Structure formats: structure tokens, C-alpha cells
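Quick one, T. Sequence first:
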Amino acid sequence: MEIKCKVWIEKNGKVIFGKGRDNILKAIDEQHSLNAAAKELGMSYRAAWGRLKASEERMGMKLVETNAKEKSLQLTPLARKIIDRFDKLEQDVENLLHTADKDFQKLTNNDKK
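C-alpha cells:
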């Protein structure tokens, strides 16, 4: 038995951030390119661009900016804060689920005796 949960953030019923967008931003941070990030994640450039732009529009803020000197993309400071906070939220949820899972294991194992 295992308890499962997915976490994402919505605004007005539309996704603004979740694991997929988290992965896109982390790949951009690593690759400094949306095209390279999309390839790394096995998705099309158009799909990655669409999710990134949708999140920026729904949040009303930029998540990436172009470094004209290096001709590359970089995350905004706010995007880095969002990634850090989302990662902490996911870890908090995982910890809660782990505790609940142990409780259910005890309950179901006691009922078998």
C-alpha cells in the first residue's frame, strides 16, 4: 500500500506551477536555452514555450530573461524563489504522506492479526 499525491498551483482554475513547469525552469537554468531544455525533457520547444508563457501570463511576472551579452536564457530571481518554495512544498507533502502511510500500515497490519 502506498499513498500518492500530485501537487500543483492554480489560479482561476488554470495551472500556474507544478512539477512539469518546475522541471522546465530547472532545465533552462542548466542549459541556458529553452530549446535545449525542451530536448532534455523529451518535449517539443512549442510545448515548453507554451507552458512557460502561460505561467508567466497567469502569474503576471517574468520567470526567465534573456542575457543579450551571452545570447542565453537565465531564470529571474523570483523564478528561483518559486522553485525553492515549490520544492519545499513537495518535500513537506512527501513527509506528510510518509507519516500517513506508516499510520495506515500499522492499522492494516493490526487488523490482520
